[in-house]
TrEMBL record, chain A:
GO terms for biological process: mRNA splicing, via spliceosome. It holds the Pfam family SF3b10. Belongs to the SF3B5 family. GO terms for cellular component: precatalytic spliceosome; U2 snRNP. PANTHER family: SPLICING FACTOR 3B SUBUNIT 5 (PTHR20978). It comes from the Eukaryota. InterPro entries: SF3b5/RDS3-10, Splicing_factor_3B_subunit_5. This is Splicing factor subunit.
TrEMBL record, chain B:
Belongs to the phosphatase 2A regulatory subunit A family. Residues 927-998 form the Phosphatase PP2A regulatory subunit A/Splicing factor 3B subunit 1-like HEAT repeat domain. The lineage of its organism: Eukaryota, Fungi, Dikarya, Basidiomycota, Agaricomycotina. HEAT repeats lie at residues 520-565. GO terms for cellular component: spliceosomal complex. This is Uncharacterized protein.
Length: 86, 1147
């Protein structure tokens, strides 16, 4: 947050944001952001049963299996984190 | 000439009172108007002697045992020394007490002798007189403020060779200095002989040079310049020498004035015996003579200060004059730096203070604990310290502590001595501050160190020290957790060595319970077991304290934790049979708090056991005991297990006999307690039982007692209703109430409330008595006293509903007319009540039936609106608003317009209720008259200066728009917006914010008409314009969500969006809210495409803002964003695949 705003009410907003997973900040990397997107996508599918059954039919798998796989994928949806440069 | 005529005198002089007046005038010259308030601001001047005992405390350095262990050395001034010192002090007190005892005995014996021998022979008297003159007369002659000649000092020392003499003590503790300013040098024989000697004329023995600098409790009072020997200043020379014929010669080159070394290293040791401070009176006298230099407000290196007190000069002497800094050592430089910062913090203006505070915090470790606390702590012990200064210094300690961390260890005791008194301060915030510091201190120093530092004070001889230590320990317990302190507490509570230690240990538990509340629950059993044995202690004080601690624990634990108290139930209940007086009171208190925790099925047994004692103690004459007994009775009655039958049979008869007597009404606290307890008893035994017992006392001859009865009846009836009251009781009750109301001599709320409550509770049953009641009111409305009239009007307000219920419209009409005639009332309080009563009647009878008719009533009220009194304004505006709402058609439009103009003035009122009522009235008036004229009045009012009036006008405009439909007002508002005046434009925008907030979804019809205006406002240079316009956009967007206004909303979004880089807090807040509202209307997808532009912008400031927007968006609609995330598959590299495969599947 810019320094002028550090002492104003907006700090609270900033803190509030930081308490939730999935929110970002100015130094977020591509990998982190996309990981969040993928997790959101997967959880959204798991949370909408019609979408689940659609995917299950497309995949030719049982709904339960698809659900399990989706949930498992959430662990590292975009693969392991890339090595730090510095 | 008759003889009784006044005799003529030959000379006349001024009358005595004139002379007196001149004398007073002369005295007024040196009257200081600030003296009184200054002493009130000073903490020490305000507090009790007990609080001020803090000045007599000795602080010693506490060794850092951990550090010592690390460095493998034995540090001086550690726990062992502290304990030894402690023991010596206790012994000294014991001896002193023994002396006093002996003295007292001697005196009593002497008295007996005198008594036995009524007329002592003359020679004996002479002898005694002579003896007296020899022993004390010589000393008496000396003024108390002249210091003792040194030979007497020597004398005292000569006598001082006893076992506990100063020398012996000093030998025992070679490193310690004892600044007991009020200590009697232990000259046993001398004291015994002259018991009346004041301690002022005793010289304390000279004290050896201390090894460590202790905190000097009574401020070092040495003036830096002896006033007889100081140099003459330029001003003084100017005053003395003639201005003409002399020339001021410049000093020869190379001359440097001698800089005297600072002399304040250890002021107390330089002065033998008492030193009278050069008080402010001496300084004031000097200032009056124009000789003494004024107190500086400008200090070199510090800048200007908000104030500077005479006392500050002692502490900050070193930085008051210019010095050559190159000659100073590093340490000295550091010291001066600290002093400057402290002076800035203590006396500076807020901005100066803030920067100084930050500096001292940042540099705390650099300065080191020693130099910092050596400067801060003496300042805190200054007797003339004021609240604000104390607050600031405590804040410094707090900040510094945080930085210093474990470096603080050697100073723990010193800090405690200064901070502990805050824990018993009467000011809540001071207590909180004290707790905060001690809790931080214990976190920094660690439990072991805190215990070893405070252990010696636990059985200190002085009760004050033990008390504050116990409180400090409870803070430590809450900071570091009860379990860590438990083993220590157990040991202390079982201490064999002294009962003081046990007493303090138990008190610590009590304080823990009081401070931590229900947080004691997990450790309740441990804490109770820790102190349980104290109930059978051989010391009565310990037993009492144990009972009090148990009471505190039970109170904190309520309603849980009865099983933890199992062990103490028996001793407590046995105890109440064994004890008397104070300890019985404590035991009863503990029982009172434990009872509510018990299971209902067991509680009745325990209550029966305790009731016997309670009833016996009903007779007590001790006030404290009375209060506790009442409290316990109240607690017993409140428990579930006790039956109404039991209360009626076993408690009530004795209770009423003992407590419902006139005497109880005289003491305020007893009065309250009795009323509360009786109300509690009524909850169990019913209204009729209690009211029936006391209703006759409504006709008692003592007014305070009648009031007590009335208050009780009010509370009982208010909580339980009057359905329980039978016909006979009803007659007695109403009769008694009317009697009590009529007979009151001081009109107050109690009688009024009582009357209102009872009549309202009886409802339709009061019909037979209404004629009598109303005639009482009518009679009192014409009373000579304004208070009585006011009360009668207030009573009308309360009774109006009931009178209507009973169908007595005739009476209401009569009352309405009489009140109308009284509208010329001159006392504003009474007038307010009369108008409110008229309003209440209008409310119940309705506007059409109202008598006097509305068309007569309202014109009479219009001029009253101009009354400046708040109560009158509020009552009038409420009534007018009511008429405007319900019966506007009875009044001609012209009258309403006149009222509109009057209402504008009310918008300036201080009270929010009045402003709100006025604003609402605009709405009602506009509704009946049509909005045009009212709106014109309000829009014109936007040009006035006062912000409050403008803001209220905008709200009123919005209300008018809401009641009459926005289409009636929008054109006028938009037209007004074209005015070149900034205030008017802002006002119009503000009005629109409220309009769209109120009308909600209706705004869909009006979006297009305001878009052009919003375009203008959102592109204005003025920040406030854009802010207010953003608020309008927010309300619009939320209102029209889902109503198909996306096109105009998109347009507005494009205008709002560039404002997201604003930094002013209010503006950015409004803009962010507008953007959030847009998410609702436009959908998160659109917003996401806006934010994607800047999430990875190269400029950090841009990224920060965009991420903030993204985060709000994400939190608002995380799930809905999923389909809108961009496809970033092409960014995949190595192991990281960013394709969202599930979204690419289709059937």
């Amino acid at each position: 947050m810019s320094s002028e705003l550090r002492y104003t009410a907006n700090t609270q907003l900033e803190h509030l944001h930081a308490r939730y997973t999935g929110t970002g900040h100015a130094d977020l990397t591509k990998y982190e952001w996309l990981t969040h997107q993928h997790r959101d996508t997967l959880s959204s599918i798991v949370g909408h049963p019609p979408l689940m059954s659609y995917l299950a039919i497309a995949d030719g798998e049982a709904i339960g299996r698809v659900k399990f796989e989706m949930t498992e994928r959430m662990l590292q949806p975009c693969g392991p984190p890339p090595a730090k440069d510095d | 000439m008759s003889s009784d005529e006044p005799r003529l005198v030959d000379s006349f002089t001024a009358p005595k009172e004139v002379l007196q007046e001149f004398a007073e005038l002369a005295e007024e010259e040196d009257f200081d108007p600030f003296a009184e308030t200054a002493s009130k601001r000073q903490i020490a001047a305000r507090q009790s002697d007990y609080h001020n005992r803090r000045f007599s405390r000795v602080a010693n350095e506490s060794a850092d045992a951990f550090k010592a262990a690390d460095e493998g050395q034995d540090v001086e001034g550690g726990y062992k020394d502290a304990m030894r010192l402690q023991m010596l002090e206790r012994e000294e007190q014991r001896v002193r007490r023994a002396i006093e005892e002996k003295e007292r005995q001697a005196r009593e014996e002497g008295k007996e002798k005198m008594d036995l021998d009524r007329t002592p022979p003359r020679e004996e008297l002479m002898e005694a007189a002579q003896e007296l003159a020899q022993s004390s007369g010589a000393k008496r002659k000396r003024r108390w403020d002249v210091s003792e000649p040194s030979d007497e000092n020597a004398d005292v020392k000569m006598e001082d060779k006893g076992e506990w003499s100063k020398e012996a003590l000093e030998q025992a503790t070679p490193k310690k200095r004892r600044s007991r300013w009020d200590a009697t040098p232990a000259d046993v024989t001398n004291v015994g002989e002259t018991p009346k000697r004041s301690r002022w004329d005793q010289a304390p023995a000279a004290q050896p040079e201390p090894a460590m600098t202790p905190i000097i409790m009574n401020a070092p009072g040495v003036m830096h310049d002896d006033k007889h020997n100081r140099y003459l200043t330029d001003e003084e020379l100017d005053a003395i020498l003639p201005s003409q014929g002399y020339q001021i010669v410049t000093p020869p080159p190379g001359y440097a004035p001698v800089v005297r070394p600072p002399k304040f290293a250890n002021p107390v040791t330089e002065v033998g015996g008492f030193h009278i401070q050069e008080g402010s009176d001496a300084a004031a006298a000097a200032a009056a003579a124009g000789l003494a230099p004024e107190l500086p407000t400008e200090i070199p290196g510090v800048g200007s200060l908000a104030f500077f007190k005479a006392e500050d000069a002692q502490y900050f002497a070193k930085i008051l004059k210019e010095e050559d800094e190159t000659e100073l050592s590093v340490e000295e430089m550091k010291e001066r730096k600290i002093m400057r910062l402290l002076l800035k913090i203590k006396n500076g203006t807020p901005p100066v203070r803030k920067t100084a505070l930050r500096q001292i915090t940042d540099k705390a470790r650099e300065f080191g604990a020693g130099p910092l606390f050596d400067k801060i702590l003496p300042l805190l012990m200054e007797r003339t310290l004021e609240d604000q200064e104390r607050h600031l210094l405590v804040k410094v300690i707090d900040r510094v502590l945080y930085k210093l961390d474990d470096l603080v260890r050697p100073y723990v005791h010193k800090i405690l001595v200064v901070i502990e008194p805050l824990l018993i301060d009467e000011d809540y915030y001071a207590r909180v501050e004290g707790r905060e510091i001690i809790s931080n201190l214990s976190k920094a120093a660690g439990l072991a160190h805190m215990i070893s530092t405070m252990r010696p004070d636990i059985d200190h001889a002085d009760e004050y020290v033990r008390n504050t230590t116990a409180r400090a320990f409870s803070v430590v317990a809450s900071a570091l957790g009860i379990p860590s302190l438990l083993p220590f507490l157990k040991a202390v509570c079982r201490s064999k060595k002294s009962w003081q230690a046990r007493h303090t240990g138990i008190r610590i538990v009590q304080q823990i319970a009081i401070m931590m509340g229900c947080a004691v629950l997990p450790h309740l059993r441990n804490l109770v077991d820790c102190i349980a044995h104290g109930l059978q202690d051989e010391q009565q004080k310990v037993r009492t304290m144990t009972a009090l601690a148990l009471a505190a624990l039970a109170e904190a634990a309520a309603p849980y934790g009865i099983e933890s108290f199992d062990n103490v139930l028996k001793p407590l209940w046995v105890g109440i049979r064994l004890h008397r007086g104070k300890s019985l009171a404590a035991f009863l208190k503990a029982i009172g708090f434990i009872l509510p925790l018990m299971d209902p099925e067991y509680v009745s047994y325990y209550i029966k056991e305790v009731t016997i004692i309670l009833i016996r103690e009903f007779q007590t004459s001790d006030e404290e005991m009375k209060k506790i007994v009442l409290k316990v009775v109240q607690q017993c009655a409140a428990t579930e297990g006790v039956t109404p039958q039991y209360i009626k049979q076993d408690i009530l008869p004795d209770f009423f006999k003992a407590f419902w007597v006139r005497r109880m009404a005289l003491d305020r606290r007893n009065y309250r307690q009795v009323v509360e307890t009786t109300v509690e008893l009524a909850q169990k035994s019913g209204v009729a039982e209690i009211v029936g017992r006391i209703v006759n006392d409504l006709k008692d001859e003592a007014e305070p007692y009648r009031k007590m009865v009335m208050e009780t009846i009010t509370k009982v009836v208010a909580s339980l209703g009057a359905s329980d009251v039978d016909e006979r009781l009803e007659v007695r009750l109403v009769d008694g109430i009317i009697y009590a109301f009529q007979e009151q001599t001081t009109e107050d709320q109690v009688m009024l409330d009582g009357f209102g409550t009872v009549v309202n509770a009886l409802g339709i049953r009061v019909k037979p008595y209404l004629t009598q009641i109303v005639s009482t009111i009518l009679w009192r409305l014409n009373n000579k006293s304004a208070k009585v009239r006011q009360q009668a009007a207030d009573l009308t307000t309360r009774l109006a509903v009931v009178i209507k219920q009973c169908g007595e419209d005739q009476l209401l009409n009569k009352l309405g007319l009489v009140l109308f005639e009284q509208l010329g009332e001159e006392y504003p309080d009474t007038l307010g009540s009369i108008i409110a009563a008229e309003g209440a009647i209008a409310n119940v009878v309705g506007m059409t039936q109202m008598n006097p008719p509305i068309k007569d009533l309202l014109p009479r009220l219009t001029p009253i609106l101009r009354n400046r009194h708040e109560k009158v304004q509020e009552a009038t505006i409420n009534l007018i608003g009511r008429i405007a709402d319900r019966g506007a058609e009875y009044v001609p439009a012209r009258e309403w317009m006149r009222i509109c103009f009057e209402l504008l003035d009310l918008l300036k009122a201080h009270k929010k209720g009045i402003r709100r009522a006025a604003v609402n009235s605009f709405g009602y008036i506009a509704k009946s008259l049509g909005p045009q004229d009212v709106l014109q009045v309000l829009l014109t009012n936007l040009r006035v200066q006062e912000r409050q009036s403008r803001v209220c006008s905008t709200v009123a405009i919005a209300i008018v728009a809401e009641t009459c439909g926005p289409f009636t007002c929008l054109p006028a508002i938009l037209n007004e917006y074209r005015t070149a005046e900034l205030n008017v434009r802002t006002g119009c925008l503000k009005a629109l914010t409220f309009v769209f907030e109120y009308v909600g979804p209706q705004s869909a019809y009006y979006v297009d008409s305001v878009v052009t205006m919003l375009e203008d406002a959102l592109t204005d240079r003025d920040l406030v314009h854009r802010q207010t316009a953003s608020v309008i956009v927010k309300h619009l967007a939320l209102g029209v969500a889902g109503l198909g206004c996306e096109d105009s909303m998109m347009h507005l979004m494009n205008l709002v969006w560039p404002n997201c880089f604003e930094t002013s807090p209010h503006v950015i807040g409004a803009v962010m809210e507008a953007v959030e509202a847009m998410r609702v209307t436009l959908g998160p997808g659109v917003l996401l495409s806006y934010t994607l532009q800047g999430l990875f912008h190269p400029a950090r400031k841009v990224r920060e803002v965009y991420w903030r927007v993204y985060n709000s968006l994400y939190l608002g609609a995380a799930d809905a964003l999923v389909p809108f995330y961009p496809d970033l598959g092409e960014l995949s590299e190595g192991q990281n695949v960013y394709d969202r495969h599930p979204l690419q599947m289709f059937i």
